Amino acid sequence: MVQAKSWILKQHFEGFPKDSDFELKQEQLPEPKDGGWWLKEFVFSTLDCICVFSVVGNSCVTVVAEVLVEAVFLSVDPYMRPYSRVRMQPGDVMIGTQVAKVIQSNNPAFPVGCHVVGRCGWRTNTVLDGTGLTRVLNDWPQDVPLSLAIGGLGMPGLTALYGLEEVLAIKPGETLLVNAAAGAVGSVVGQIAKLKGCKVVGSAGSDAKVAYLKELGFDHVFNYKTVPSLEEALKQASPEGYDCFFDNVGGLFSSVVLPQMKYLGRIAVCGGISLYNDEEPQTGPYPHLNMIFKELRMEGFLVGRWEHKNEESLKRMLAWVKEGKLKFREHVTVGFENMPAAFMGMLKGENTGKAIIKV
Ligand code: NDP
Asked: pTM of the prediction?
């Protein structure tokens, strides 16, 4: 029997999250269930167990084989803030992904000792069937940290890749703007856009982040918190305007960008972190006139749309890593008990690169 810890959403966040919105719980986990075949009649005689059975053919059922996993690295991401409102109820375990090690297994697809990325929520240990688990790539190199499977070589990195390739379809020679540029998604956006021959302008919230982005090869970077005028900073960085805008921030920032877009410019609406903690929705300026007169294209997206391409995409990105063309930084918080602090810190901008928790 394993004692598991989990972080619960005690009450819905009102405005910026606070410590008292979270509660740490302990529970004893059941043993993972064994798989197997059973006669259908058996199901009808044990109705209280029916939830673990599924009917196969006309006469047999199978018990889903379960595994027990132990979290190694957990992720805190901006989406958890808006999703908590629409997908969670008070008392639910906070949603989230983790890199975990399989420590007990009845499921041959996930043998003991293998590493998986799982949608387990903020939990130290989880018993589950294979649903929501993905094996870390078989050929994951020894010298590449496993934490990247929830970072640059995981969901945030793929978001960057798909936003650029599938939504914006960026072309060599184009000028791209990305905000929250020193974060998990933004820092990968800028590097891939450079790889593809673009001029890249990035904005971030501290001088240290600006210096990091210059190191990564961004062409122009500015601290959006200290420039006297965002509009002037955008004009200075690219007087001819922007072909593409990878928007992680939304709100007022995006409104200032729209007039700086080139005719027929494209905008990938990836995130709106400047809006996530609002109690009252922000209003205007509205995008319509710029959208119409510049004939802009704006498309929202979720990374999961291209899930079928993930394996091939991760291999491509891993090759860039091996060639030294793609680099990642992580902001590591040690200790499961510090997850709420890491989450709130990320929303405040404390992280450069991906915010992760090492158990
Ligand atoms: P980051 O690692 O970039 O962390 C969040 C960063 O946002 C902070 O470090 C901070 O950096 C910045 N920030 C916070 N508040 C504000 C604000 N009011 N104005 C401007 N910047 C702010 O997070 P991710 O890279 O994981 O995510 C970036 C965006 O991408 C988010 O909006 C997220 O929701 C979205 N996303 C969307 C996905 C999709 O499928 N569409 C998938 C993954 C992420 P700074 O110091 O620069 O202010």
From this structure: 0.94
